[in-house]
Fold this sequence. Notes:
The protein is 48% helix and 0% strand.
Amino acid sequence: MQFIRPSPLRRTFLKSFIFPASLLKGTSLLEIMGGHDAGTHHQFTGIAKYFNSYTITGRRNCVLATYASIAAIILFFKLKPKKQKAVKSS
């Protein structure tokens, strides 16, 4: 089996393509990866302002709504009155 080594020029290109030096100056890796303030440039209106996948708050609200709906379904079936069996009189 033969392995193909990329040329030095290609390796340099790949390194600069993935993490260009101008991008790394003055920024942290968390900011590059879409960390804390990812999505602050989006302007949402209506329900999308509270439930979206771009902001941390929007994601949190989606998770809380999901958990609350699952809990409501469980409580509904737990607290629902039980059906009484019909008693035959003889």
